[in-house]
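User: Can you predict the 3D structure for this chain?
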Amino acid sequence: MVEPLLPAGDSPPREPHPFLGYAMVLTAATLWAVNGAVSKVILDSGLSSLRLSEVRSTGAFLGLALVLALVAPQRLRVSRRELPMLALFGIAGLAFVQWFYFVAIHRMSLAVALLIQYLAPLLVALFSRFVLHLEVRRRIWLALTLALVGLSFVLEIWGGAGLDGIGVGASLLAATSYALYILIAEREIGRRDAISLTTYGFLFASLFWAVVQPWWAFPAGVVDDAASGAWGLPVWSLMVWMIVLGTIVPFGLLVGSLSFIPATRASITAMIEPVAATVVAWLWLGEELGAPQLGGGALVLAGILLAQTAR
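Assistant: Here is the predicted structure, written as structure tokens:
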């Protein structure tokens, strides 16, 4: 699952190496796509979506906090006034979007779950227009039409209950949480940098999960088991991959790319994730999409692309 935390606007890049910036975004999106398959294998090994969300949030917080403490400790300073919004960002945004995403990919295919969750930018554009009363280009209506028509093909609504209802509902809730995450991030990004904002977000997400499910009740026996479908690798090794290469490294690449390309272009380029996830799920998990679903996915991505440029 991609988690871009990008500043608003489309300021010019600071360095004349755009190809490097695009390469960094594409690498980040690919790592997130692989991470979806890794997470699904972990879930299939017996760890609950709640526990996996707790592991990812806590591990990402510890890793990001360590990097900032070593490189730029002054960026960890925080005022009391910031705490309520940081808590909302961490819990309603980061904690919930990960949980709903894990529920969704555990109950249905990775590609379908991601396509539904990627409706978030469209929800943000609609929120900006009708709640914040900001100017949004008319193309948002074409974007909405494309996304809804494409989604009907992805879900194959004419086929009845072909998809898991809970999985679809979780994907829609993940899209809603993701939209809230984007809106709060854009509000707070002018007050602190993206990395420290995400670090505090993961901190509050970790605290939330620690209260909901204390660590002393963690099912440690599952961690040493061999993960099915992962060539006999233990579950703990996949967790390390998820935290380091599935969260910290791709986020760092995405943020670093902003030195070479504008934020809007980085966001649009990151939309390669559902495509990459479809390929990874086919090669690794044996998941396949039918021709109507592939065509519908293309329409959804086209709608999201228009939504990105309509704000």
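The mean pLDDT is 84. The longest helix spans residues 18-44.
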